[in-house]
């Protein structure tokens, strides 16, 4: 029998880390993950994969770690002797990176160097393949569309600048030390376990809450921004394929379709039968309930009569606090290289992604509704 491959995932508690861990375990890997110490449990997304440390022959093993701590990372890599490292850990919120730029440079930028250098110092350059979670944010200010592996970068946030360092240090270690180190330039990908403060999840949570009568209004920033949104499940498969390729290269992973934030809002509310009409401009723009599609509302298990009461009300508004000092207006990726050379094919279209997220959030928010009915206070988070 072939020996089990060993993978190390940094950022295993995040959206992508959880899907990737699940994917690799299904492929028969032994998966090691790095999680941070937190004052509350932070393993919600991977709890279904947890294995009791007292059980022999575990396939899923967690280590405490931190991207800003070289000694910690070097020790874990030495212990694990991984065949593959997926470096997914990062402070990944673009807007927050304007508030914590130095930390982001350290964790997202220098953190990548720490991984590469540990592999080199430990003499693992021939054994260990490295995947670096690069991003479409590198393209930033629009230079050309669709964006490909050769489109010039123009980062527009401390996050993107840190990721630019990580991108180039990965290329440099590949060229200097002949390492199998690759960048996956991934465009936005979402899922039911997407962080709650990214725009798609903020929208699907709010649309569900508004439909259930738990929230009155959704406040957003730039509704004109356009993103190429895919499903995280499709994208983690690609991370693995990148490390199975014959040669180490950099790859764009995208859907090739771009959609404005405003239209994502329309689709999410549409799932629960709320048809929106947008009126006004800039900070005065609002999304007003134009009509209720009774069939969709019923299919979603909602109280149609209560939804009818929303007619004519503004349920979406713009709050400038969510504007960014510098914005990325338009992202649309060209995944041709990945499709042709690695045979990658995505399974989810945008509509299916929205439906998947809405179904899940509606289910989660229904629990909140029960709590509210039982007299408990429900928090509304607007970040
Ligand atoms: P998440 O924010 O969901 O997850 C980030 C993970 O990194 C979490 O496990 C987090 O831990 C961990 N982490 C953050 N800072 C540190 C640190 N200093 N030390 C150790 N661990 C840390 O991101 P995603 O899963 O969405 O993204 C994965 C990677 O892919 C990130 O690098 C992101 O920048 C990049 N990316 C994401 C895209 C997307 O659309 N999702 C697109 C392109 C790139 P904790 O749970 O404790 O917070
Ligand atoms: P992004 O994702 O910045 O593309 O980075 P996010 O969902 O935060 O923003 C997408 C676009 O929506 C606009 N927007 C809002 N964004 C948030 N978060 N909250 C709002 O209220 C809001 N209103 C409008 C934003 O201005 C932006 O234009 C994500 C992250 O996963 C990165 O880690 C990853 O590298 C990139 O995707 C590719």
Summarize the structure.
Keywords: Lyase, NADP. By secondary structure, this protein is of the alpha/beta class.
> Could you give the order of strands across the largest sheet?
3-2-1-4-5-6-11
Bound molecules: NADPH dihydro-nicotinamide-adenine-dinucleotide phosphate, guanosine-5'-diphosphate-rhamnose
Report the oligomer.
Answer: single chain
Main pleated sheet: 7 strands, parallel
Q: Structural class, from secondary structure content? A: alpha/beta
Query: Mean pLDDT, nearest integer?
Result: 96
Q: In percent terms, what proportion of residues is strand?
A: 15-25%
CATH homology-level superfamily of the largest domain: NAD(P)-binding Rossmann-like Domain
User: Which second-level CATH architecture of the largest domain applies?
Assistant: 3-Layer(aba) Sandwich
Number of helices: 12
Tell me the series of helices and strands, N- to C-terminal.
EHEEHEHHEHEEHEEEHEEHEEHHEHH
Q: Per the principal axes of the C-alpha atoms, what is the gross shape?
A: globular
- The CATH topology of the largest domain is given as Rossmann fold
What CATH first level of the largest domain would be assigned?
Alpha Beta
